[in-house]
Amino acid sequence: MPTEDPPLEPAVEVTDVRALRALAHPLRNRLLGQLRLHGPATASRLGRAIGESSGATSYHLRQLAHYGFVEEVEGRGSARERWWRARHRMTSWQAADVVAQEGGTEVQHEMTRLQIDQHARVLAAWHDQKDALDPAWTAAASVNDYALRLRPEQAQALTEELNGVITRWMEEHPGDVPAEGTELVSVLMDVVPLTEWPS
Fold first, then answer.
1. In a domain, 83, yes or no
2. CATH number at residue 52
3. pLDDT tens, 49-74?
4. 3-state SS string over the chain?
């Protein structure tokens, strides 16, 4: 009889550009996101959820497992139907470490593009779904942009401070652990330098 799934580890910091390149594949990125938010699943279930064949999802899950992002759930499933789970709630990396490696600049660009695309999908989904939410969410939701003039070390200090706050909240209210009366809340945080504000 399967035991309760162990909790996800808080985060993994990726230092190997090969592992980050594996994660930069859009389908793998989506699969990992599904497992983090919805818990263990089979390749077939994931395929139905994201509109891909179970053969494709199975292959990409094995690639994610090779680099330690996901793992097979022991005691669940069969030889024909394997269950997979995410290992971590979050993936992080230092851009400077990645770009210092061969091919790292390209991988960093791919990951940045994936993140920008994901932010756009999250905001579009919120806009489409907001009228179906409890009215209390109208006041609770917040979309902001701020403009500051900072030096690089100040921007880094700001990022670290904001990440600390979000990390504390994530530890107290993890997105993969449903609780009564809650909804999944996305917090998008970007600290980006601009040579010119877009018009």
1. yes
2. 1.10.10.10
3. 999 999 999 999 999 999 999 999 98
4. CCCCCCCCEEEEECCCHHHHHHHCCHHHHHHHHHHHHHCCEEHHHHHHHHCCCHHHHHHHHHHHHHCCCEEEEEEEECCCCEEEEECEEEEECCHHHHHCCCCHHHHHHHHHHHHHHHHHHHHHHHHHHHHHCCCHHHHHCCCCCCCCCCCHHHHHHHHHHHHHHHHHHHHHCCCCCCCCCCCCCCCCCCCCCCCCCCC
pLDDT digits 0-9 by tens, 172-197: 998 888 899 999 999 999 999 999 99
Which residues, including other chains, have CB under 8 Å from residue 33's CB and lie 6 or more apart? Answer: 118
Structure tokens at 38: 């919805």
79 within some domain: yes
Structural domains counted in the chain: 1
Whether 17 maps to a domain, the answer reads yes
Q: Which band of pLDDT confidence, cut at 50, 70 and 90, is reported for residue 2?
A: very low
Task: State the Cα–Cα distance between residues 3 and 1, nearest whole angstrom.
Answer: 6
